[in-house]
Automatic annotation (TrEMBL):
<feature type="domain" description="Sushi">
    <location>
        <begin position="594"/>
        <end position="655"/>
    </location>
</feature>
<keyword id="KW-0256">Endoplasmic reticulum</keyword>
<dbReference type="InterPro" id="IPR000859">
    <property type="entry name" value="CUB_dom"/>
</dbReference>
<feature type="domain" description="Sushi">
    <location>
        <begin position="114"/>
        <end position="173"/>
    </location>
</feature>
<feature type="domain" description="Sushi">
    <location>
        <begin position="288"/>
        <end position="349"/>
    </location>
</feature>
<feature type="transmembrane region" description="Helical">
    <location>
        <begin position="679"/>
        <end position="701"/>
    </location>
</feature>
<feature type="disulfide bond">
    <location>
        <begin position="496"/>
        <end position="523"/>
    </location>
</feature>
<dbReference type="GO" id="GO:0090036">
    <property type="term" value="P:regulation of protein kinase C signaling"/>
</dbReference>
<dbReference type="GO" id="GO:0060074">
    <property type="term" value="P:synapse maturation"/>
</dbReference>
<dbReference type="Pfam" id="PF00084">
    <property type="entry name" value="Sushi"/>
</dbReference>
<keyword id="KW-1133">Transmembrane helix</keyword>
<dbReference type="InterPro" id="IPR035976">
    <property type="entry name" value="Sushi/SCR/CCP_sf"/>
</dbReference>
<dbReference type="GO" id="GO:0043025">
    <property type="term" value="C:neuronal cell body"/>
</dbReference>
<dbReference type="InterPro" id="IPR035914">
    <property type="entry name" value="Sperma_CUB_dom_sf"/>
</dbReference>
<dbReference type="InterPro" id="IPR051277">
    <property type="entry name" value="SEZ6_CSMD_C4BPB_Regulators"/>
</dbReference>
<feature type="disulfide bond">
    <location>
        <begin position="175"/>
        <end position="202"/>
    </location>
</feature>
<feature type="domain" description="CUB">
    <location>
        <begin position="175"/>
        <end position="285"/>
    </location>
</feature>
Length: 739
């Protein structure tokens, strides 16, 4: 009988309203269809057809314990749509008020493997995920100067809704610590206040390997009036003072150098304040060498990675930043006490500028640090005359009193493409000409109204048409396009000929900037076989787990089973098509199913080593009783087959003709001797009685012997001749193996 709740548990199937009609409940008809698959898997529904009347309800819901979440309903369902459950159960609820003309629908469902959500990246750190499915690992690490608080590695736990083994860790800057054998690192303002009253005392001791010195570079130092920082050239506060914030207004721009292999940093704050910020980078270097230079938001190349005397270093900035406050090239000088002939420069995001490269980056002033109050910046971008500009605003966070305006042209009075303030999502804009102007104004009263983090945008010159360039064909494959014109959103799909695998993305999309989402793929000849699989009741030995061409797999059946087919499979390549195995997968079948039955005994014969069953390859030998000759094969063999059979028919035991004729001659000779005795009796009467007795005794003995030699085998059979089938006696000791 139908039931208002229908349950499915197969990994794939169909939910068809015609198969399970809704049942009456109060004033309407309803039915619930629940699909539950194994833990760790979800349910994917595809709408094959849906035809509902007004007022009918069809709701697809995810099931998470007692909670139901609506994933889709009749207002959103269209043919071909795919809905995925977040757990291993999905529920489809259908309700109608119609008594006749009930709406219909068909849904195709199948199981798919669920995964954990991507773990949250810790602030001031990063995460590397090996796999998001059950058993997958996520490894966390912190940037220089931060320590991990929590588990370093998380595991994706298999459940109805997979989850990570614990909360994601965080990265925090510690208050003090000791660094042994220091090479490179950072000392940062602590993430958390100290005592309940907010006061804090932190001490860092940094020790380089013996024979090396330390260099401190103050990337940022912002202390309050009552904060104090002291840097000692040694392990304790009795060492030489290199810097004291109470006595020196500014730290030297070139940083601090230790006299020996250790430095001690003392920091004291009477009360914790967010405005107290410092970021000190340290690195160890060999005596007699210059220290390794550093530039934020940039990079450098060097003529000598050991930074010996005469080494030169050239600095460059990241896109969107410009070099300032220092030369682009510095040199290590002074043999007695090496040092750089100038300080490292700075890379800063500038306020405005003129850009003419085919692609570039525009950043808010001082990025990644917050921009200042009262900024008024203008960037002018110019590209090739036959081109126009695609502007991609990737990040935008301003206060409500700061304004970013994009103009279509080379003047601030041109047509406005966009104007933004406050928070905004990514934006994509196109100019109508080779020129674009960007204007940014920050409120001078930003301290009162607050200010945002800034903005990040990139630009690239693009063609003036509205389509992507066509992509080439690929060797040993073909391509298909979703649109006749390669407009934005159009897709090109590549496929390979049989025997080839696609390398790269098989589907490319024409993006908003009229570039393709990736490079075209190529087709690579498949040089491996697919795994032929295991064979029941056997073990296998594989020469190469990758299953490349030339790989062999040797199958061996377990005891009590016989191999049917080739035991050795070899992967070989074909000119066309994918590599295949030299033969089909063998089978291991039970010995009893392949054995030959005992064929029985020939009349007047017997078997050597009688058994009920003979395995393929085993032989059976026959013998005849004395006086009989075996006609046919003395030995027959069990031949493997389905079913197995004997190599020849049962032989026949016939009477031996030579022995039979010899017996007849002996009988005739005995009769002739009897006639001669009678003649002697007539002539020699005195001797008659004696001769008769002696002759009769002789004839009697002779004839009995001849007849006995001829007929004995017919009178007495072989002792095993009556055993024609296996005994019905059950030997319990033999069957159970008990001795």
């Amino acid at each position: 009988l139908p039931h208002p709740i229908v349950t499915f548990s197969d990994p794939e199937g169909y939910i068809d309203s015609n198969d399970y009609a809704p049942l009456p409940l109060q004033s309407f008809l309803e039915c619930t269809y629940n699909v539950t698959v194994y833990t760790g898997y979800g349910v994917e529904l595809q709408v094959k057809s849906v035809n509902l009347s007004e007022g009918e309800l069809l709701s697809i819901r995810g099931v998470d314990g007692p909670n139901l979440m609506v994933l889709a309903n009749q207002t959103l369902l269209v043919e071909g749509q795919v809905i995925r459950s977040p757990t291993n159960t999905i529920s489809v609820y259908f309700r109608t008020f119609q008594d006749d003309g009930i709406g219909t629908f068909q849904l195709h469902y199948q199981a798919f493997m669920l995964s954990c959500s991507f773990p949250r990246r810790p602030a001031f750190g990063d995460v590397t995920v090996m796999d998001l499915h059950s058993g997958g690992l996520a490894h966390f690490h912190c940037y220089l100067g931060y320590e991990l608080q929590g588990a370093k590695t998380l595991t994706c736990i298999n459940a109805s809704k997979p989850h990570w083994s614990s909360q994601e860790p965080i990265c925090s800057a510690p208050c003090g610590g000791i660094v042994h054998n220091a090479t490179i690192g950072r000392v940062l303002s602590p993430s958390y206040p100290g005592n309940t009253n907010g006061s804090q005392v932190c001490v860092w001791t940094i020790e380089a390997p013996e024979g090396q010195k330390l260099h401190l570079h103050f990337e940022r130092l912002s202390l309050n009036e009552k904060d104090r920082m002291v840097v000692y050239s040694g392990r304790n506060n009795k060492s030489t003072v290199l810097y004291d914030s109470f006595q020196m207004e500014n730290v030297p721009f070139e940083g601090l150098l230790s006299e020996g292999s250790a430095i001690r940093i003392y920091f004291m704050a009477e009360e914790a304040r967010a405005t107290t910020v410092f970021n000190i980078r340290f690195e160890a270097f060999e005596k007699g060498h210059c220290y390794e230079p550093y530039i934020q938001n940039g990079n450098f190349t060097t003529s000598d990675p050991t930074y010996n005397i005469g080494t030169t270093v050239e600095f460059t900035c990241d896109p969107g930043h410009s070099l300032e406050q220092g030369p682009a090239i510095i040199e290590c000088i002074n043999v007695r006490d090496p040092y750089w002939n100038d300080t490292e420069p700075l890379c800063r995001a500038m306020c405005g500028g003129e850009l003419s490269a085919v692609a570039g980056v525009v950043l808010s002033p001082n990025w990644p640090e917050p921009y200042a109050e009262g900024e008024d910046c203008v960037w002018k971008i110019h590209v090739g005359e036959e081109k126009r500009i695609f502007l991609d605003i990737q990040f935008l966070n301003l206060s409500n009193s700061d304004i970013l305006t994009i103009y279509d042209g080379d003047e601030v009075m041109s047509h406005i493409l966009g104007q933004y303030l406050g928070n905004s999502g990514p934006q994509k804009l196109y100019s109508s000409s080779p020129d674009l102007t960007i204007q940014f104004h920050s409120d001078p009263a930003g301290l009162i109204f607050g200010k945002g983090q800034g903005f990040v945008m990139s630009y690239i010159e693009v063609s003036r048409n509205d389509s992507c360039s066509d992509l080439p064909e690929i060797q040993n494959g073909w391509k298909t396009t979703s649109h006749t014109e390669l407009v934005r959103g159009a897709k090109i799909t590549y496929q390979c000929d049989p025997g080839y695998d696609i390398v790269g993305s098989d589907t490319l999309t024409c993006q908003w900037d009229l570039t393709w989402s990736s490079d075209p793929p190529f087709c690579e000849k498949i040089m491996y076989c697919t795994d032929p699989g295991e064979v029941d009741h056997s073990t296998r030995l594989i020469s190469d787990p990758v299953l490349l061409v030339g790989t062999t797999i040797q199958y061996t059946c377990n005891a009590g089973f016989v191999l049917e087919g080739s035991s050795l499979l070899t992967c070989y390549s074909r000119e066309t098509g994918t590599p295949i195995w030299t033969s089909r997968l063998p089978h291991c079948v039970s010995e009893e199913t392949l054995a030959c039955d005992n064929p029985g005994l020939p009349e007047n014969g017997y078997q050597i080593l009688y058994k009920r069953l003979y395995l393929p390859g085993e032989s059976l030998t026959f013998m005849c009783y004395e006086g009989f000759e075996l006609m046919g094969e003395v030995t027959i063999k069990c031949i493997l087959g389905q079913p197995s059979h004997w190599s020849g028919p049962l032989p026949v035991c016939k009477v031996n003709q030579d022995s039979f004729e010899h017996a007849l001659e002996a009988e005739a000779a005995a009769e002739t001797s009897l006639e001669g005795g009678n003649m002697a009796l007539a002539i020699f009467i005195p001797v008659l009685i004696i001769s008769l007795l002696l002759g009769g005794a002789y004839i009697y003995i002779t004839r009995c012997r001849y007849y006995s030699n001829l007929r004995l085998p017919l009178m007495y059979s072989h002792p095993y001749s009556q055993i024609t089938v296996e005994t019905e006696f059950d030997n319990p000791i033999y069957e159970t193996g008990v001795s």
